[in-house]
Amino acid sequence: MASEDTRSELDDAVFERDGCTCQYCHDRPDVAELESYAVDPDPMPAGDSPHPASLVTICADCASVLAGTAVTESPETDQALFETVRECTVAQSEAISDVVAFADRGTGLPNALEAGEHDPEAYAASRRKLSVTLDVLEVQLAGLAALDPADFAVDPAAFEAFQTDARRLQSDLREIVATVERVAATLERCHVCLEAVGGDGSGDTAGRCRACSVTRLDASEWRGPDGEIDFDVLFGSINETLQTASKTTERLTGRASDVAESLVG
Fold first, then answer.
1. In sequence order, what DSSP letters do the residues of 158-211 get, joined into one string?
2. Model pTM?
3. Is there a contact between 24 and 62 (Cβ–Cβ < 8 Å)?
4. DSSP summary character for residue 52
5. What pLDDT, in 10s, does the model give residues 103-114?
């Protein structure tokens, strides 16, 4: 946790920006129980600190989950497993709503930039919230995968089907976020803070954004032979994955019900 002695001015600024509220569980503990979490693992150049656009406020409990040091034990009872499955299902269902909102913001970015109406803070906040949510879900799904169904009254086939769809949905959500980030990159904007970056590498240092020091994304795959971006294809890719994720979400709810029925009847 960030004590008064170890907290930096950057931490304090991040906490204040986020209303001293954990951006995953929405708890609002004492400031001493808050931490700043970097959603971008890209190492900073020597002497640089992470940019606020890459940092998000989380509570000590969520930080311990992300660090793999949570004191909460893996579920040992049928009821505990039921609650864990339910929590993951709810979290993923909420995440897809946030992903849809982020995708809408990303696909609207070309027109917003042209009109000078883009909102870097709202973009960065949406991206941070999604990133920390998906990181926590990654840890929780890994915990479920490590369980032995034989230790519970769960139907092994139902449990495996739930995990398969949960992992598939997680992959789809990450793919959508990554593709939206490349929308920014195709527009010669940093995918983290939306600052302008040179498409040919000029205007930044060693391929990094001058504002936040994060390495620029390569968006060349979306450029045609003439160098122009085919936004119809790019946006179509986002929409196609969104539709797939939506269907998986509906199926996941049924999978969770099957698991619950075998656990608690």
1. HHHHHHHHHHHHHHHHHHHHHHHHHHHHHTTB-TTT--B--TTSTTSBTTB-TT
2. 0.89
3. yes
4. G
5. 999 999 999 999
